[in-house]
Amino acid sequence: MVSPAFADGAARNSPAAATAVAAMRRPIVVNFVISVCSPYVTSQSNGELDPVCVRGFSLNGTICIVIRTKLSVKRSKFEKTRPIMTNPEPVFTDPLFVMQGKSVLIVGSGGFGQHIAKTLSERGVNLAVFDLNPNSLKALSDEAPNIMVGTVDISSADSIAAMIDATIARFGRIDGAVNATGVLRTGPAQSLPIADFRQSLEVNVTGAFELSRQLATTMTPQGGGRIVHIASVSSLVSNEEYAAYSASKAGLSQLVRVLAREWASQGVLLNAIGPSMADTDMTQGTFSSEEKRAQALSVIPMGRFCEAEDLTGVVLLLLSQAGCYITGQTIFVDGGRTLV
Ligand SMILES: NC(=O)c1ccc[n+]([C@@H]2O[C@H](COP(=O)([O-])OP(=O)(O)OC[C@H]3O[C@@H](n4cnc5c(N)ncnc54)[C@H](O)[C@@H]3O)[C@@H](O)[C@H]2O)c1
């Protein structure tokens, strides 16, 4: 809804707007007219209403508008000609996103986890990074020696407990955690080994559940904390031969919703990020031919695969003050993949 103050301002700017505002003082339905027009009105450099935009007709004293498709065309034109972002400061200097001095545990130091660790390390976060595979940890500690590293098996409750204890012993608390572990087992459903299906659930869902509840137990006495799981577009879309992975990622997204609801009053906020396909170790060998790769690309409206860097903004959002009222969500970072 447009406020009367905005409407009066628009009326001062142009005769066409004044006509619309005068109409607004008639019965309440007219407010709807201005409400629908408001994105358009604000997008005009000269403040004028497009005659097509305000085209309506009278029906029992009601004014209706026929403009939905028109709006999107006009908006995109506007975005090309007038920059929307005017703040020249990099986002991470905004106090809402500051992470300096926080303690964060990252579980999984593969393609995505590695990038998230570097991003947070650059922002002065006290970091503990754990993975099943010590090789990826070595690469990380060689590059950033101040990061605490260790091994963990997320499918073992004892191993998770030891990891949390070690992190608390080092930093005293855990403000946030990112779970970037995962396994991808694919194949035709009828011949997929049941062990592959079980392992997908064991690591991607049961591991995430055990990790979340041990973290919540640690975070609750601190007054709360943030937990972020990496889900996938497979939480939502279906792909042939992805039965095990998709079932596990959909399960993870729903798990996040339930736990978020259960722990919201304790200040423990849980969310998931749903990336589209990225070139990491996990996806090596996914495509048997260039044709299959091109086919996978063709269903991403932005025309490229995800890169680890694409997750930076949403990770900072979900771990920082900026995300203080977001819980239970899976935020898709997917170039539009889930729209197709
Ligand atoms: N790469 C993609 O295309 C893609 C797309 C969407 C979502 N994801 C998800 O992002 C997350 C990170 O994937 P990635 O692309 O960085 O893959 P990756 O293979 O590079 O990293 C996954 C990491 O998880 C670790 N891991 C596996 N099982 C473990 C266990 N039991 N205990 C502890 N660590 C374990 C592996 O050692 C590896 O380092 C995963 O959850 C994945 O499903 C990946």
Describe this structure in words.
The chain contains 11 helices and 9 strands. With 340 residues, it is of the alpha/beta class. The protein is globular and about 50 Å long. The protein has 2 domains: 78 residues, no CATH class; 249 residues, 3-Layer(aba) Sandwich (Rossmann fold). Helix 1 runs antiparallel to helix 2, helix 2 runs antiparallel to helix 3 and helix 8 packs parallel to helix 9. A 7-stranded parallel β-sheet has the order 5-4-3-6-7-8-9, sandwiched between helices. Strands 1-2 form a two-stranded antiparallel ribbon. Strand 6, helix 8 and strand 7 form a beta-alpha-beta unit. The structure holds nicotinamide-adenine-dinucleotide (NAD). Nicotinamide-adenine-dinucleotide (NAD) binds next to helix 5 and helix 8. The site of nicotinamide-adenine-dinucleotide (NAD) has 29 residues, from helix 5 and helix 8.
Quick take:
The chain is of the alpha/beta class. Helix 3 (29-43) runs parallel beside helix 4 (68-81) and helix 7 (157-171) runs parallel beside helix 8.
Q: Topology as H/E string? A: HHHEEHEHEHEHEHEHEHHE
The major sheet is characterized as: 7 strands, parallel
- Count the DSSP helices: 11
- Rounded to the nearest angstrom, the radius of gyration is 25 Å
CATH architecture of the largest domain: 3-Layer(aba) Sandwich
Shape annotation: globular
Number of domains: 2
Distance between the first and last residues' Cα: 30 Å
Beta-strand portion reads 5-15%
Structural class: alpha/beta
What is the CATH homologous superfamily assignment of the largest domain?
Answer: NAD(P)-binding Rossmann-like Domain
Quote the CATH topology of the largest domain: Rossmann fold
The top-level CATH class of the largest domain is Alpha Beta
